[in-house]
Amino acid sequence: MARILRVNLSALTATTEEAPEAYRKFGGRGLTACILDREVPPTCDPLGAENKLVWAPGLMGGTIAPCSGRMSVGAKSPMTKGIKEANTGGAMAQKIARLGFKAVIFEGKAKEPTMVKIDKTGVSFCSAASLAGLGCYAIIEKLKNEYGKNACFGCTGPAGDMGLTAASIMFTTPDFHIRVAARGGLGAVMGSKNLKAVVVDDAGSNLLEIKETHKLKENVSALTKGVLGTHFLEGLRHMGTPQIVMITQTAGALPTKNFSMGQFDKAENLSGEHMEELLKKRANAETVHACMKGCIISCSNIYTDENGKFIVASIEYESIALIGSNCMIGDLDMVARINAACNDAGVDTMDVGSALAVAMEGGLLQWGDAEGALKLVQEINAGTENGRMIGSGAKVTGEKLGVKRIPHVKGQALSAYDPRILKGTGVTFATSPQGADHTAGIVLPGPHHPEYSPVEPTGQGRESRFMQQWMAAIDTLGYCMMIGMTFMEEKPKQLHLNMIGALSAVTGETYPDTYIMDLGASVLEIERRFNRAAGLSEKDDRLPKFFTEEKFGPAQFVFDVTPEEIDSVHKQ
Ligand code: SF4
């Protein structure tokens, strides 16, 4: 699998080429970074024709390795103005890999809204006029009826069409639920290219090349045995990521009232425990659900109402915290409805959830006004002024409403962990080339890390660096973050070796024991090089001032990691 598919939207042509040597050692996030670094002018307009949109399965994509079908979507971000990778589950990466492609690069700009179909016979183009004005749920339903059950889709919603900076790209799971390449406004990049939807069908194709099948099976079997039964997986396998609500609540790090408090008095109503109890009683609901083939964790869910009517799939911790506690909304059904409205508009629940809290702080809505928040998100589809504002994320919303406390780094809203309590995660938010993002290297205490104190101001740079490198490698290999966190917990040395052994079985190459961390470090270096050339510097690697000034929680913590330690993260 060493071919690249280039789709030129200006000319409506597609070409296939052997991947250049420089691209071969990467997949996923590393490959999107490498392609952008070599092919996209760092100072270009993110919504101009010079920007490229890259979809890349990881190095393990399409193989039998557990949870290895994640896809990296890359482009210069209209939100951070730097390099961006948005990572998603769903069926797309595995299908692209089975068609024999390391990456699909969308270039140029179509004259009118266009749909691209990719299958074993090649690439075709058609008008997307029939999808105009539809929300993402209607688009997916229409495509499913037209292209059948073996296809999967990636599309933009109204927010992407309008070029809003919190616009995401929506992908489908094998059973046609939505998974989202959420962060950084890459839906606006897709919209700017007039690329409305992509249909991929891998029927009759398996061009994935595995050099040593037996060796792959052996290493995959060892990896799977190693991770099943780990502490990290216990809760995930029956509550999914909503299990984190009560963990951050107990730690005092659950974003509440626009990051002014770390505990919410209605947190139990939003918890994974409550969700599990609720959904077990509801028809057509599922408390565990896999977003892709080969997932051994199933951390997703299908959320229905008390009559068994579908609301959303899946509801995740980050959405619950940023739409829920951070807006003082303690009703999980309403959080699920607002999440579904975000999916329909095609926006990031994290940036829009954060924007809702900022709008509440700015007086546009009352704290806890769930109905008002839902209506405001629904205004995105209608393209009203307030809808466009909220669909552009927390920074734009805060600036328009004159709010001083805007929780963002490089223009991207913080994920749902207060950095005054989780200081290593705060360093990652500050210094990741991706902007504030938990998937870039969250640093957590736990049984796997008994000596680590998350509130100490020193030593956090080292912890953050390790996790940033680790996650950059996990995203490059194509593993899901959930299994990536688990690999670290149990006998990490042996699991590292099994990960390396599995890759070696796929490529036929040999790698040193240090391969994984070296890979992550090299990806971060490429990303930082792009960002420097785009004009970002150390002054952009800072949390908003209120985190360093406002005392927080009973122990009156502030984020007090020194600028020197922050700046040392990427200098080792
Ligand atoms: S663990 Fe969760 S996010 Fe990861 S692949 Fe499985 S269902 Fe998807």
| Unreliable segments of 5+ consecutive residues | none
What's the Cα radius of gyration? 22 Å
> Strand percentage, roughly?
5-15%
- Structural class, please? alpha+beta
Distance, first to last CA: 34 Å
Average pLDDT across residues?
A: 95
Oligomer: single chain
Q: Which ions and ligands are bound to the chains?
A: iron/sulfur cluster
Largest sheet features:
6 strands, mixed
Tally of alpha and pi helices: 24
Biggest sheet, spatial arrangement of strands? 2-1-6-3-4-5
Tell me the total number of β-strands: 17
What share of residues is helical?
A: 40-55%
- The rough form would be described as globular
Features:
globular, 41% helix, 17 strands, binds iron/sulfur cluster, six-stranded mixed sheet, alpha+beta
How would you describe this protein?
The protein is α+β, with helices and mostly antiparallel strands. The chain has 24 helices and 17 strands. A six-stranded mixed sheet has the order 2-1-6-3-4-5. Strands 8-7-12-9-10-11 form a six-stranded mixed sheet, with helices on both faces. Strands 13-14-15 form a three-stranded antiparallel sheet. Strand 16 (408-409) and strand 17 (412-413) form a beta hairpin. Helix 12 (317-324) packs parallel to helix 14 (349-361) and helix 19 crosses helix 22 (515-534). It starts with a strand and ends with a helix. Iron/sulfur cluster binds at residues 67, 89, 290-292, 295, 297-300, 480, 482. Iron/sulfur cluster (SF4) binds at residues 67, 89, 290-292, 295, 297-300, 480, 482.
